[in-house]
Amino acid sequence: MKSITTDVLIVGGAGSGLSLAIFLNRLGISSWLVERHPTTSPAPKAHYYNQRTMEILREEGLAERIYALGTPAENMARVGWYTSLGGDDELDRKTIYLMDAFGGFSLAEAYERDSPCRSANYPQLRLEPLLLEHARTSSFASVNYHHELESFVQDEDGVTANILDRDTQTHYEVRAKYLIGADGGRKIGPALGIEMDGIPRLFDMVTVHFAAGLSQYLDDDSPMIRWFLSPDKGGSWGSGVMVALGPERYDRFSEEWLFHFAFQPDDPAQFDVESVVPRLRELLKLPELMPRIIRMNDWKVQGVLARRYREGRVFLVGDAAHRHPPTTGLGLNSAIQDTHNLAWKLAAVLKGQAAPGLLDSYEAERRPVGTRNVQWALLTFQNHLVIDAGIGLIPGAPVEVNREAFRLLFSDSPAGATRRQRLHEVIQSQRTEFQAHDIEIGFAYEGSPAIIADGTPAPVKSPMGDEHIPVTRPGHRLPHAWVTRSGGTISTLDLVGRGRFVLLTSSRSLVWQKAAKTVADVTVDVVAIGAGLDCEDPSGRWAAIRGTAPDGAILVRPDGHVGWRAEDSDHSSELEGAVRRILALAS
Fold first, then answer.
1. Greatest extent of the chain over all pairs of C-alpha atoms, in Å
2. Which end of the chain is less crowded, N or C, counting CB atoms within 10 A of the terminal residue's CB?
3. Helix axes 330-350, 51-59, angle to 10 degrees
């Protein structure tokens, strides 16, 4: 039997597996990826990538391609709620509400202040081929589709896996130092006996990917997501939600569309191509619509979390570790952020720069974020029912009762004005989904062995997840500020990452340069930001948020999170100990 040796065996070739292979390649770590399907997934699945994910992909040189290929910023600036696209009833073709979203319009200043990247919208069915193309140009990544993991065993030195090449029906063996389950929870987690806690089946969902010309029914290109609320269908999840899928245009002239609608788990309806076309026509009120169904799939809306993310030399990432409702778009974003967190730690251990104990911090950091994200997605999914109530929809009520609620909402009367104001106040609570700025970039790693807390209090968090307060407190992502270097403008995030520890200071002191040189086996780059230093701070933004005296320092880990900071240079002798502690090395 053929035998392959690699640093890391990755099981699963979707977004999390491919991103991990890419991140490990940059760090010089070999990986062998196997995916049981012959190609990347043709299902639309995820499509929204938040600012933190785009910052990570920007580091790999992928962000600009996604922006160029995906939805223009002006076409993902809002979300909208509507009664229907067509129809000639008194309640048809009505706009119920428009909300600024994803950094659009009123949100632009805050989103642009806090990140060098905007959010992006690009279907996962097209993102995965882009990631695959990138991975296959890598020196250290081997990507193998139509290869299936059949079994694995681990010992104190590594993992041995039995792989089936489904094209040739032959088996081979892979010996790796570590195995990563990026298989959506299909095999690795169950094989290890790792249970998933939470809500395994909240709703059943049908996703339809279809081609059709809808431009004549649309007059506003700013909404990325269009929700349909029909008085005849009983509210949000019964009526459905639609997103443009391009591939050439992401506006009213989009060639393809995604449409989700939900049904109860005990609903006897079975959906196939024959039954879904009439359902689409009915929901959109377009009886003459002739959609070409490209693909459809049904799936369970879940909110579940793995009890643990690691078993020995095996780690779980992405959907193998957490599965969320689609609202707030936290699924693939969390998955890519999982792999970004894990990649540098695997590299440091495999290169002998860190002790294996560093890997304990993966679960300590990412599982609390996974817990929060699952809970947040459940909240925002369920909150759509609150919007229904804000309109006046009553579940189970006669259709005419719900129709009267809509008539009053649109009426030119004192009652109508009151109902529209009520809806405005209620629907603003859905900013937890569409304006979740702090949820997306403000997560922090508390209580991690790879973070050295400094005793300062955490910033006060907005209960709605919308307002972000940038801080350099240990555990938090390094804040973004525009600085200048050699005449060009760059982000503070451009100064860190790429497998390096970076020490940021704002003085000319040579103390930190000297301290950085004493850190054995690990390079710590020192960058000074301020007038006449390595980088200039013309706006004063960095000085306002750096959180230390000018001669203090901020140690940033390779993943862009602050690992340690010192108020002033009197603490320079502590730098080496801080790096060693982060890397789980003996003092």
1. 80
2. C
3. 40
Give yes or no for a cis peptide into 326 (omega within 30° of 0).
no
CA distance 181 to 8: 11
Give 406-422 pLDDT, tens digit per residue.
999 999 999 999 999 99
Please give the CATH topology (third level) of the domain spanning 446-582. Glutaredoxin (3.40.30)
How does pLDDT run across 469-495, given as a tens digit for each residue? 999 999 999 999 999 999 999 999 999
Provide the sign of the torsion angle of the four alpha carbons 258, 323, 65, 12, taken in this order.
negative
Amino acid at 470: P
Separation CA 181–CA 459 (nearest Å): 34
Q: What are phi and psi of 506, to 5 degrees?
A: -135, 35
Q: Are strands 196-211 and 292-306 parallel, antiparallel or unpaired?
A: antiparallel
Sequence-ordered strand ranges (E) for 219-361: 223-228, 241-246, 256-263, 292-306, 310-311, 314-316, 322-323
Burial pattern 68-98, b for ≥16 Cβ within 10 A else e, equals: ebbbebebbbbbbbbbbbbbeeebeebebbb
Average pLDDT for the chain: 95
Question: Residues in the chain with pLDDT < 50?
Answer: none
Euclidean distance between CA atoms 63 and 201, whole angstroms: 34
Question: CA–CA separation, 188 vs 137, rounded Å?
Answer: 27
List phi, psi (to 5°) of 472.
-100, 20
CB 78 within 8 A of CB 99: yes
Name the nearest CA neighbour of 528 among 492, 565, 578.
492
Among candidate residues 475, 185, 448, the one with its CA nearest the CA of residue 324? 185
Please give the span between the terminal C-alpha atoms of the chain, in angstroms, as a whole number: 45
d(CA 252, CA 219): 7
Q: In whole angstroms, give the CA distance from residue 583 to residue 196.
A: 30
Amino acid letter for position 225? I
| Cα–Cα distance measured from residue 187 to residue 45, given in angstroms and rounded to the nearest whole number | 20
Residue 216 CA from chain centroid, whole number? 33
Give exposure, 322-352, as e/b (b: 16+ Cβ within 10 Å).
bbbbbbbbbbbbbbbbbbbbbbbbbbbbbee
SS3 of residue 270 by DSSP = coil
pLDDT at position 261: 84
Report CA-CA distances (Å) from 338 to 46, 119, 141, 355, 543.
Answer: 16, 18, 18, 20, 31
Domain ranges of the chain: 2-70+119-196+303-376, 388-439, 446-582
Which residue has tokens 């005419």?
Answer: 400
- Tokens 């892979």 found at: 174
Nearest-5° angle of CA 499, CA 504, CA 507? 150
What pLDDT is stored for residue 464 in this prediction?
A: 98
Dist. CA 326–CA 377, nearest whole Å: 7
Q: How far apart are CA 422 and CA 145, in angstroms?
A: 52
**In 437-467, which positions are buried (b, 16+ CB within 10 angstroms) versus exposed (e)?**
bbbbbbbbbeebebbbebeeeebeebebbbe
CATH topology of domain 2-70+119-196+303-376: FAD/NAD(P)-binding domain (3.50.50)
Give the C-alpha separation, 300 to 50, whole Å.
Answer: 23
